[in-house]
């Protein structure tokens, strides 16, 4: 009665919409999720902060600015300059996947705090290896990882963290279904957290130490992002999918082009991605759901796909403006109350007219062709029509051994439906996949729904194996049997990354990323030379036929089937809850504090390795079989930099021990130096640490005696992770100085006693022949981060402040 009465009054008085929303928010409180009925969405505070900042800056704001600045700890006095100042933010919630949650929870335990300060969740998705199929693989994972799952479940219960059991699905799909909403600021300990931008939130991937700050109630620091605008015009049609938008953007911006920026999609073309394409799906405000010729455009999910893979261009995150498609998805996933509240606040969930972008890219969707990117890097973009010819010219294998669909990037209901639509056409002509074919549902809800609606059976009939609701081969959790290590071969996936050895630990696997429907078509044809837009297949009856561009419902006609209940609520009283870590465990290890800075310059540092070329977090701390040690710092440190190429000999995991002059594995050499009190550095190339958010790539060098990482440039998350653990991420003031340093040199870093923001440090290079050179090293430390360095780590500094 209150709401109806108030809306009538509002209409009569002509009160501005957002004032209504403020009252609604206070009177009819809306919970952030079904799982936390007492944690509310605070659009009123978002609005208040946006208005303060807009008045101060006196200019139109982009959408990402509204959401980020709307979460400022102190909007009235926070210094705001894109790309320069550090913002102190108050995120709404934290999400952690099981591989990174182990170290995050170990650090939180070490902090001594009794409970998390913001809603937080743990998601079990990384430790399930693809081997035989969904149910068998899940049973095996529960058995093998019982100790770790028990630790995470009990730690979650004790400290107030929700726990999603193994089999529940991939963290990002669970967030989309339950926790993301327009205007949320969410941080997650996984680099593909930006997936939530598909529901209009600012969702940012971070290391575990950042998550600990937020869970501890400390303002979270982020360098004020620049904003790259991507204006979409025209409309998608035919075989072109949302995946092609980000594959194209990756080709334009490259793997580091988005570093330090939020990518914000806007323009009339957004509606062709977001319209429902379903009967009765009438928009409540105008959307363009027709093509250039006036014909209806089929539904297109998903904006989440585009935001997810924005991690591959180094972007802080990506975001889409709130629209009807998001409203419908929220309603279909049981959150109509959030959608209604977002409608009231819509002005704050879209960019201001006339806002300024630091860089603007325009893509005409009507002209965009299906793309496929790879091998070995996600920014090597090819139109599908050309990749076969390029592959033959470059000597890449054109026969496709395995096609893999799913993963956090492309496992929506519509993704599965479009793939099934392609498979149905092949089956109608008596064909099955020539390549092996795997399907990874994104969540238990997606799995149960595609089973009910027949998609899963169609994909099985065409030759597919449905894997567990988990990351699986996308992160190297794949017990691959069809090839030997070192055998040259090609796979095509609907995943997001394709670094050397990432999927199967074979450096000769040429992995290409594309849309699920293109993967399905290529797996049926068995070759990169097949272009489904123009080429014909031969049916069992000998007749030639062409695959039609697939279409599928964006959302199920019936409600989603939630499947099995896989969520564990934290108890209201956790006083009797114990968290056990055995001192003899090979999987878990309580953390010892890192040593404090001794107040002196770093003298005569040995060079552990001078890295040549690309060095991702996969190169620094490999996943796959190493995932089982993510909770045991000493054990996982045995994979330190084993994938990095040593410039001295062109080999991986082979470096010279400066004392013995013998070549040996990188971790062994680092342990030798640590044992003998020799401090060391790593020299890196461009965009060092791109890829995953795994903070183990920072913890390991610190644990084994590293003091600094000196590179031409860093990826954002890794640079922060290094600072958090008390290491010095430094960059050459002149990138050409990379060539002045040789693996046999020793380095002294000067200026730490007067370590101040913006002031370069001096580095003296001591050559074996007795000559010396001096170069300058830049850094991005602010005052808070310098305190982390002096204390030995951010966690040490937190404890100092508590005392």
UniProtKB/TrEMBL annotation:
Composition bias, kind Polar residues: at what positions? 565-583
MF-aspect GO terms: 4 iron, 4 sulfur cluster binding; aconitate hydratase activity; iron ion binding
Q: One biological-process term from Gene Ontology?
A: tricarboxylic acid cycle
On whether Mitochondrion is a keyword of this UniProt record, the answer is yes
Name the Pfam families on file. Aconitase, Aconitase_C
According to the record, the residues making up region (Disordered) are: 554-583
- According to the entry, every stretch annotated as the Aconitase A/isopropylmalate dehydratase small subunit swivel domain falls at 606-734
Source organism, top-level taxon: Eukaryota
Question: Which compartments is it annotated to reside in?
Answer: Mitochondrion
| Cofactor(s) in the UniProt record | [4Fe-4S] cluster
Q: In which pathway does it act?
A: Carbohydrate metabolism; tricarboxylic acid cycle; isocitrate from oxaloacetate: step 2/2
- Tell me which EC number(s) this protein carries: 4.2.1.3
GO CC terms, sorted: cytosol; mitochondrial matrix
Its chief place of residence is: mitochondrion
Q: Which CDD domains does the record match to this protein?
A: AcnA_Mitochon_Swivel, AcnA_Mitochondrial
Reaction(s) catalysed by this chain, per the record, are: citrate = D-threo-isocitrate
Q: Aconitase/3-isopropylmalate dehydratase large subunit alpha/beta/alpha domain spans which residues?
A: 65-277, 301-526
Q: Does the keyword Metal-binding apply?
A: yes
Keywords attached to this Swiss-Prot or TrEMBL record, sorted alphabetically, are: 4Fe-4S, Iron, Iron-sulfur, Lyase, Metal-binding, Mitochondrion, Transit peptide
State what this protein does.
Catalyzes the isomerization of citrate to isocitrate via cis-aconitate.
Similarity section: Belongs to the aconitase/IPM isomerase family.
Q: What is this protein called?
A: Aconitate hydratase, mitochondrial
- Annotated gene: ACO2
């Amino acid at each position: 009665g209150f709401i109806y009465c108030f809306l009538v009054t509002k209409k009569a008085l002509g009160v501005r919409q957002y004032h209504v929303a403020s009252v609604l928010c206070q009177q009819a409180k809306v919970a952030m999720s079904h799982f936390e009925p007492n944690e509310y969405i605070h659009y009123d505070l978002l609005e208040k902060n946006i208005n303060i900042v807009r008045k101060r800056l006196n200019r139109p704001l982009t959408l990402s600015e509204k959401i980020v600045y709307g979460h400022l700890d102190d909007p009235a006095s926070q210094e705001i300059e894109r790309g320069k100042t550090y913002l102190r933010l108050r995120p709404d919630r934290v999400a952690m996947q099981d591989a990174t949650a182990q170290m995050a929870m170990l650090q939180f335990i070490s902090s001594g705090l009794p409970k998390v300060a913001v809603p937080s969740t743990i998601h079990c998705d990384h430790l399930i290896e693809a081997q035989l199929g969904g149910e068998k693989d899940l049973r095996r994972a529960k058995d093998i990882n019982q100790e770790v799952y028990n630790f995470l479940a009990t730690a979650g219960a004790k400290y107030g963290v929700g726990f999603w059991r193994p089999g529940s699905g991939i963290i990002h799909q669970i967030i989309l279904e339950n926790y993301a909403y327009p205007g949320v600021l969410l941080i997650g300990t996984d680099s593909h957290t930006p997936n939530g931008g598909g529901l209009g939130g600012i969702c940012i991937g971070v290391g575990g130490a950042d998550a600990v700050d937020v869970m501890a109630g400390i303002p979270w620091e982020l360098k004020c992002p620049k904003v790259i605008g991507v204006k979409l015009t025209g409309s998608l049609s035919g075989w072109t999918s949302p995946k092609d938008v980000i594959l194209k953007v990756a080709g334009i911006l490259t793997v580091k082009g988005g570093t330090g920026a939020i990518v914000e999609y806007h323009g009339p073309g957004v509606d062709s991605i977001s319209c429902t394409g379903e009967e009765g799906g009438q928009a409540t405000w105008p959307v363009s759901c027709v093509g250039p010729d006036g014909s209806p455009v089929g539904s297109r999910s998903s904006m989440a796909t585009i935001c997810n893979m924005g991690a591959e261009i180094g972007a802080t995150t990506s975001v889409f403006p709130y629209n009807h498609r998001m409203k419908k998805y929220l309603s279909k996933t049981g959150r109509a109350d959030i959608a209604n509240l977002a409608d009231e606040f819509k002005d704050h969930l879209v960019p201001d007219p006339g806002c300024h972008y630091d860089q603007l890219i325009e893509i005409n969707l009507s002209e965009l062709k299906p793309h496929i990117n790879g091998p070995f890097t996600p920014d090597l973009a090819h139109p599908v029509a050309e990749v076969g010819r390029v592959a033959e010219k470059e000597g890449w294998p054109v026969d496709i051994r395995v096609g893999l669909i799913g993963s956090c990037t492309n496992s929506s209901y519509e993704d599965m439906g479009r793939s099934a639509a392609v498979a149905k056409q092949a089956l109608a002509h008596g064909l099955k996949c020539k390549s092996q074919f795997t399907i990874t549902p994104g969540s238990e809800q997606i799995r149960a729904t595609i089973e009910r609606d027949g998609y899963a059976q169609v994909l099985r009939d065409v030759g597919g194996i449905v894997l567990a609701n988990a990351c699986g081969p996308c992160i190297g959790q794949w017990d691959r049997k069809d090839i030997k290590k070192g055998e040259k071969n090609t796979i095509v996936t609907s995943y997001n990354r394709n670094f050397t050895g990432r999927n199967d630990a074979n450096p000769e696997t040429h992995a290409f990323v594309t849309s699920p429907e293109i993967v399905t078509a290529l797996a049926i044809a068995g070759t990169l030379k097949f272009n489904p837009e123009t080429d014909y297949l031969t049916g069992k009856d000998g007749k030639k036929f062409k695959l039609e561009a697939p279409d599928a419902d964006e959302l199920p006609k019936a409600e989603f089937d939630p499947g099995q209940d896989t969520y564990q609520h934290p108890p209201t009283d956790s006083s009797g809850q114990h968290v056990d870590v055995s001192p003899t465990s090979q999987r878990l290890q309580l953390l010892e504090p890192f040593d404090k800075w001794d107040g002196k310059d770093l003298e005569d540092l040995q060079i552990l390795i001078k890295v040549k070329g690309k060095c991702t977090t996969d190169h620094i701390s490999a996943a796959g079989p190493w995932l089982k040690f993510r909770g045991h710092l000493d054990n996982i440190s045995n994979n330190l930099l084993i994938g990095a190429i040593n410039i001295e000999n062109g080999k991986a995991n082979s470096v010279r021990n400066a004392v013995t002059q013998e070549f040996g594995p990188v971790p062994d050499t680092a342990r030798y130096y640590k044992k003998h009190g020799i401090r060391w550095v790593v020299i890196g190339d461009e965009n060092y640490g791109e890829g995953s958010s795994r903070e183990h790539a920072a913890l390991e060098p610190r644990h084994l005696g590293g003091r600094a990482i000196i590179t031409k440039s860093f990826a954002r998350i890794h640079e922060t992770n290094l600072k958090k653990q008390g290491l010095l991420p430094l960059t050459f003031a002149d990138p050409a100085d990379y060539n002045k340093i040789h693996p046999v040199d020793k380095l002294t870093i000067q200026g730490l006693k007067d370590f101040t923001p913006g002031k370069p440090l001096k580095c003296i290079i001591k050559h074996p022949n007795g000559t010396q050179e001096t170069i300058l090293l830049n850094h991005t430390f602010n005052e808070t981060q310098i305190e982390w360095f002096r204390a030995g780590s951010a966690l040490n500094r937190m404890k100092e402040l508590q005392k």
